From TrEMBL:
SMART domains associated with the record: REC
Residue ranges occupied by any Response regulatory domain in the UniProt entry: 5-121
Function as written in the Swiss-Prot or TrEMBL entry: May play the central regulatory role in sporulation. It may be an element of the effector pathway responsible for the activation of sporulation genes in response to nutritional stress. Spo0A may act in concert with spo0H (a sigma factor) to control the expression of some genes that are critical to the sporulation process.
Pfam family, one: Response_reg
Name this protein carries in UniProt: Stage 0 sporulation protein A homolog
Amino acid sequence: MSNDLILIVDDNPSNIQVVATIMAEYGYELGIAMNASEAYSFLGENTPELILLDIDMPEIDGYEVCSTLKKDYRYKDIPIIFLTVKDEKEDIVKAFDLGAVDYVTKPFNRKELVSRVRTHL
């Protein structure tokens, strides 16, 4: 069991519910943000060990969030795993170019997701 804090950023409440349930089962502490503004707000008061980030979100997408965080000395070392339906090679390459440590496509295998999270913590 772990007490590591994971921030889940996704604009879809049912996606958040599924991921949060899985992560909670493994003892992770969770932060939830439904958009970039909520994510930045959360980060202003907490330092998660890892961020699970969706790409398709209103206003500010996950790519921009990742890019912004990687340019900020306070957050640049937090591993970001994209968790998204986007499965084109260009999307995956872009994510890594922006500094993500991993990329998981939805629908995902829960054991695979947990293993990837564990690997980057």
